[in-house]
Give the backbone structure.
Amino acid sequence: MSNIPLSGARLWDSLMEMARIGATPKGGCNRQALTALDGEGRALLARWGAEVGLALTTDRLGNMALLRPGRDASRRPVAIGSHLDTQPTGGKFDGVLGVLAGLEVMRALHEAGTETEAPLLLINWTNEEGARFSPPMMGSGAAMGAFTEAEVLDIRDPEGTRFGDALAAIGWSGEADPAGLHDLEAYFELHIEQGPILEREGLDIGVVTHALAQQWFDVTVAGEESHAGGAMSHRRDALVAAALLVRGIEAIAREAGGDARGTVGRIAVEPSSRNVVPSRTAFSVDFRNGDEAALDRMAEALHERARAVAAERGVEVEVTPFWSFPQTGFDPALAGRLRDAAAGRNLRFRDMPTGIGHDAVYVARQVPSVMIFTPCLGGISHNEAESITPSQAEAGMLVLADAVLATAGIAKG
């Protein structure tokens, strides 16, 4: 166990102070990527980092990297990271816990005057959520080679604002090369579970061993608009056809069983008039599975159902791949350090996968990486009701600190 003066109370106070930026009436946060509020959150993190001597570098995609030097300058940094951006109706802890727990590690080291052998790096990744600019995890994805810098800078939000222009507008477009962030010795990410397993099992910590594979699609159903007073027999209603497919997506996931997931999270109807039969419906599909062959079968089942609905309802259905990534394993040695840290703190823990995308999933493509989960109330996240306790936040931070310092090493003498 580390004996530096880690403070759960100081971590909690920092979480509450950050939560005031973009606070919503229902107790959550709306601090979407590359908004002025995101800029305020970044400035607060930069100020806190400067107070304990961290050197800030910002890259051309806005990823923030705050460095604490180590004794051995030849070693690559051991990094802690997550994100400060939120969903429109997000909570106080998703992403933010990982960043501010990392900051608390840096604060405690500074307070103790303790030097690590390897440098330590605290990272705030740009646009993890993908709420305003889609797909998610753009900052980490581009840094690790999943996207090009140019394509990220040119992505537009629903109002047509370009990513690069929004980044420049809030003053967080830096000069560093994002690819520099894959030159790391190890990467740790602490996160709330965003699910109910740890709470239900009465556990304190989840050691995340792998991330499920994902495939996302855009589906467009084209029918024919007509008057709502017209006969039912001749309709080519795009919305009714889409509804059959939406119901089928849930069925595909349930039939796959295991850890399969299927979600429709966005839908748009045209012409969106009360007395007009819809002629076009577009919606998103999100499939996840820990078995990549089974995930492929889910995708094929979607195409089969689309063909069947098109024939049955007299409409045209187009299924277009949008985004995907494979199942990703986290580093076994780092996971072992998390288990040792949890056991050393007398915390109850288990191994588990994540069905949710995180920056660590992209970082793991280039860097030995691992994730830590803490419970959250009812498994609720991406919701203003998202909640954890101070003791849960502290437990995650202690395990993070012990594992990071075991990796970086404490300088002797």
Observations:
- The chain has a mean pLDDT of 96.
- Residues 245 and 308 are 10 Å apart (CA to CA).
- DSSP finds twelve helices and 16 strands in the chain.
